[in-house]
Design brief:
Order of helices and strands: HHEEEEEEEEEEEEEEEEEEEEEEE
Helix content: under 10%
Distance between the termini: 20 Å
Strand content: 35-45%
């Protein structure tokens, strides 16, 4: 930008320049919270967008596996503004005991620290397998991420799932020796710093989502999410996610009149929450399980604009050799796997 505008880096602080810098950073995947991509520069934002399916999130299907509750864990879910959910889960108890579940949120809606306990429910559990329900419907939630927390009890095992859905994850309240020996950041009084617990994800294959049921179901994976200007989760999932039962996940864009496009940019989920610090550390995967690998873009006449296989990148830029004029655009995706539905954060068309 400095070369292009013939200015110094310091001059980027001028309002008109810093705004453009933020847009450029977001377009290249920086994802600055609270700053949307400019819709005026995006032809996709002018289209009517429909999908062959939209995931209605009512929880995860159990896979038959279980996780011992040796440390407190929480399912992280994006909630809409309104009443809290009723949560169900199948548990196995080694002996008669008690399971405590909490609905937590952050005092700052945009944060991911479960520092507000909205409600605590403790239920008696008999030895063996049983299904429990925790009713949080009398809680009032804002549009933000919330935590369904199950407090540590080594006599309990929770049902888990192999399903992975964009915008959801499990976190654990564990000790991290590099930053804390108590699982919590404590600070000196009047220091101005915040005190909070550490709730962090585990490396796969550990850290499976919990096989919880959620009622009422959450509608936060609509097709229109792909033009809301955010390229990662923030307050909401900000992603369109197809239903796993949909054999051919498809997005269709229709404009009021024909438009001419020269570039199509797609923003996929390459799971920035999963630690990949260095290739020297071992990982059980050779590809990011959330990322769409195969897709086709075509016009309503059937003309194929792009067909991509083996994708592993967050941002796919399709620069058209010749500009295309059309009123319809069809994007067909393949689910990454039988346990992971196709998902897309954003579409930018110029």
């Amino acid at each position: 930008m400095c070369n292009k505008l013939n200015i110094t880096p310091k001059e980027l602080l001028q309002p008109e320049h810093i705004a453009q810098l933020q847009q450029n950073l977001n377009l290249n995947g920086q994802s600055i919270p609270g700053i949307r991509l400019d819709k005026h520069n995006n032809l996709a934002a002018q289209a009517s967008i429909t999908a062959s399916s939209e995931l209605v999130f009512n929880g995860f299907q159990p896979s038959g596996s279980r996780m011992q509750l040796d440390s407190s864990c929480a399912q992280l879910v994006a909630f809409a503004k309104g009443q809290g959910p009723t949560i169900s889960i199948t548990v196995f108890a080694h002996k008669e005991t008690e399971l405590t579940c909490q609905l937590r949120t952050s005092i700052k809606h945009e944060n991911y620290t479960p520092d507000v306990i909205n409600k605590t429910i403790s239920l008696s559990v008999t030895a063996g397998e049983s299904t429990l329900e925790f009713d949080f419907s009398d809680c009032s939630l804002e549009m933000q991420y919330g935590f369904i927390c199950f407090l540590q009890n080594s006599d309990i095992e929770l049902a888990t799932t192999e399903q992975l859905i964009t915008g959801t994850m499990v976190v654990f309240n564990k000790v991290h020796k590099a930053v804390s020996n108590k699982g919590k950041q404590t600070v000196p009084e009047n220091s101005g710093l915040e005190e909070f617990e550490f709730w962090t994800p585990a490396r796969r294959p550990n850290g499976q989502n919990l096989a919880i049921g959620i009622s009422p179901a959450i509608h936060n994976h609509q097709a229109t999410q792909v033009i809301n200007g955010f390229v990662r989760p923030w307050l909401q999932t900000n992603a369109w996610v197809a239903d796993l039962a949909d054999p051919s996940p498809t997005l269709r864009l229709v404009w009021p009149e024909t438009v001419t496009m020269r570039q199509i940019v797609l923003y996929f989920d390459s799971d920035f929450d999963h630690a990949l610090e260095t290739v020297l550390m071992e990982h059980n995967e050779d590809q990011v399980p959330y990322c769409v690998q195969t897709y086709t873009i075509k016009t309503d006449s059937g003309e194929v604009i792009a067909h991509v296989t083996g994708n592993y990148q967050s941002i796919n830029k399709i620069d058209l050799v010749e500009p295309i004029t059309t009123q319809h655009l069809i994007l067909e995706f393949a689910h990454p796997s039988k346990n992971v539905p196709a998902a897309l954060f954003e579409i930018q068309i110029k």
